[in-house]
Amino acid sequence: MLLLLIALFVMGALSTLLAPSQQSSADTGTSQQVTEGKALFTVQCSSCHGLNGEGQTTAVIQGPPLAGVGAASVEFQVGTGRMPMSQQGVAQAPVHPVRFSPEEIAALAAYVATLGPGPAIPSPEEYDTSGVSEEDIARGGELFRTNCSACHNFEGAGGALPGGKYAPSLLQTSNLHIYEAMVTGPQQMPVFNDDVLRPEDKKAIIAYLNDLHSRPNQGGLNLGGLGPVSEGLWAWIIGIGGLIIFAIWIAAKGVKAK
């Protein structure tokens, strides 16, 4: 029995020494980075989201819990200037100038990732569209029109939503933030995880938007890129309005003739 215990102890010690060190999947950076992110979180974010990211809901403060939102959500919200919010009680967080450096954003994301598993910040290969084929761009257009154009309109120029909310314009949005928006579902946007849109589908959508927004304007007014909506509106205003003015002019000339 003693020999068995000694053998078990030796095997356990050897496995501890020889096993490769593993990093938690939630810890997206070094322990030093996580520590720096926690200190920054405590100063900048805890007043709304709680000291441990548990969230707060009061008459004045509305800060959702952050466990499970993932590093990608933090990078998107802070990297676009939506967070920290400058004002509570607005319908949704607007884009503002970014207040943190890339290193600080990475530290915040690394810390929040330790609170619970969630979407990681995508690697550049996932949203790099340099090698996407014309066929994939066309497929990305079909996917965008099917899943996204109802809110962002046909060319990604954005649009109004109920309750004072809106789908933001995608004309100046980076590939990284478009990808992160699809996997995190910020504001009113649904989450398009890999079961809904495969990674290659997300890349195709981004490639389609890049191709669409790089096309030159061949002349004329684009009318906000709203397609038949704005075209029909202006046709009604100019066409019907012109007929009304013409009818009034004829009636006025007839009165003068008498």
Automatic annotation (TrEMBL):
Organism, scientific name: Microlunatus sagamiharensis
PANTHER family cross-referenced by the UniProt entry: CBB3-TYPE CYTOCHROME C OXIDASE SUBUNIT FIXP, CYTOCHROME BC1 COMPLEX CYTOCHROME C SUBUNIT
Localization annotation: Cell membrane
GO cellular component: plasma membrane
Record-listed heme c 1 binding positions: C45, C48, H49
Protein name: Cytochrome bc1 complex cytochrome c subunit
Residues annotated as domain Cytochrome c: 32-116, 135-213
InterPro entries in alphabetical order: bc1_cytC-su, Cyt_c-like_dom, Cyt_c-like_dom_sf, Cytochrome_c_Oxidase_Subunit
